[in-house]
Amino acid sequence: MVLRAVDPAFSLLAILIFSCHFSDRTHSPQPPVDAAAPARGDVARAPVCLPPGTLRHRRDRAQTTSHVQAFCMDRTLVTRARFADFVDQTHHRTSAERSGFGVESLEGFLDWEWRRAPGATWQRPSSVDNADTAGFLRDDAPVVMVSWHDANAYCAWAGGRLPTELEWEYAMRAGANDQRFPWGDSVEIPGTPPRLNRWEGSSHAHNDRRDGYVYVSPVTAFAPNRWGLYDPVGNVWQWTADTYRLARDTLDTNASQNQRVLRGGSWWCAACTCEGYGLTYRGHTDAGAAFSNNGFRCVYDRALSTHE
Known about the structure:
11% of the residues lie in helices and 20% in strands. By secondary structure, it is α+β, with helices and mostly antiparallel strands. It has a single domain (4-300), classed as Alpha-Beta Complex (paralog of FGE (formylglycine-generating enzyme)). Strands 2-12-11-10-13 form a five-stranded mixed β-sheet. The longest helix is centred in the N-terminal third of the chain and has 11 residues, at 80-90. It is globular and about 45 Å long. The N and C termini lie far apart (42 Å). The relative contact order is 0.22.
């Protein structure tokens, strides 16, 4: 896919590259025993423990069924507040802090246009200060401008790890069969509020703001899936543990490339560009890249006993 970037030297990393749509089918296990959402103030610190089950998905262009072991997953994307706790306790320096820049797109840019933002980090992700970019600075906003390495370090500190792509899709589908979204195949349901944060408008010159946001939204702003997981699609792309293979439509952790898989789409995704929001698209970019639309959540092989 051709991309547009102001800085030619950075063009290969200026945007997530999308592989094609693929169709999956899940077999619905029983819902998790703790799927009922806690009070909003406690939601970010209450992982959901998911039962074992199976997921039908496409591997090397063929449909296959994989078994998924039980695991627990963060109910929300990791927030700025939680990432700040991590930095305070570990003195971690992010990839963007070490490189001296992040990568951003802003309202008014051309479609597919991304630029280096000197000095941009998770603490100040945008080079512009206005009412819309202030959303990046909320404590309950998802942390962005974090690379795969940063996300991996956080999850290890929290006693967990990044989800595999298989685990991510199993959790976000929550038993949904052959659907682009957890609720069906249409991004909007007439007569109901918006269900995800995406770019709304005929181009990136202007966002129509129908969902209430231009950039990131608070991690509990939209309804969760039926397993109680917030932002299963939209808001920010979510890092997974998997390395991206050049073969399309694969789920594989054994490749040698430094490209890592992201899923879910983000606030930037739109009908005028990638339409990557949803359960069927795969993003990938360099493990060291830090974008203003990339975030993550962690999984745990047992229930959390620390950092709660």
